[in-house]
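User: Fold this; tokens only.

Assistant: Input:
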Amino acid sequence: MGDRAFSCIATILLFEDIQEGWIISYSFHLLLLQEFIPTRTKIEFIDMLSETGLTVIEATSFVSSKWVPQMADHTEVLTGIKRHPGVRYPVLTPNLQGFQASVAAGATDVAVFGAASETFSRKNINCSIEESMWRFEEVVKSAKGANIPVRGYVSCVLGCPYEKHTEPGKVAEVAKRLFSMGCYEISLGDTTGVGTPGAMSKMLERVLKEVPCEALAVHCHDTYGQALANILTALQVLVLASFVIVGQGIPVSKPLSLLTMCYMHTPRYSHWGPSTLKGCRFLFLQLTVGHLSFIFTQRSSTARAA
């Protein structure tokens, strides 16, 4: 179990005006790892996160194991975790087949993930933006029938690794369609971390013409050290939730600095209680220095000894 396997699987949420704490786990950020992470290890990590006091932990992704071998154990992971009262465990579902499989495994929250870049959409989920919307509509329709909430992701909102520039109008178009079909919240992702405060402001101003601010979140990578500035800009234009990636889930993204992490853990930036912050800080610091594999080894040894 390599250290890098755990350098990319945690996300922290910090904000001023919302009471719910999100952490997005490895469903988004293990996808590019070649080394398969043992199912038991994934389950143990989620269980550790559940003990911190977080209210939402994204558990896994119901994608095809043919294309994403890392997620071949999605059913085992979702059925194997210890669900804590008051904690939600959403999963990613790119299409109706994935949604149905997730429900069969006990999913009660799901998310669909699209893009504002045509090329990125084809490379990431193997279909055009228009085709992805059709697929998502099927998921949302079925989810409504089962009373399951659906969250929507939009990737490459401030730039694309293939097309470079992303038009704010395209972001607004995709976000509007996701919201109109029934997604309760739309997360706007700066997938490669190329965004600037100016670009963030322009993009959000355009999107806010189509989607109400209470239904928007931003998801920022700190590739070029702009995450905090971009989050501040988002807060200034009334976006209520913001994300920062810790680690290297996307090849061009870099880990969040310890200084940035500590700054974000100040009371000004979070309504989490002290115990939750303490638990999260411990896990994130372990992720940063690459010692999580040691934690699991020690934890497993202790359990066997007991």
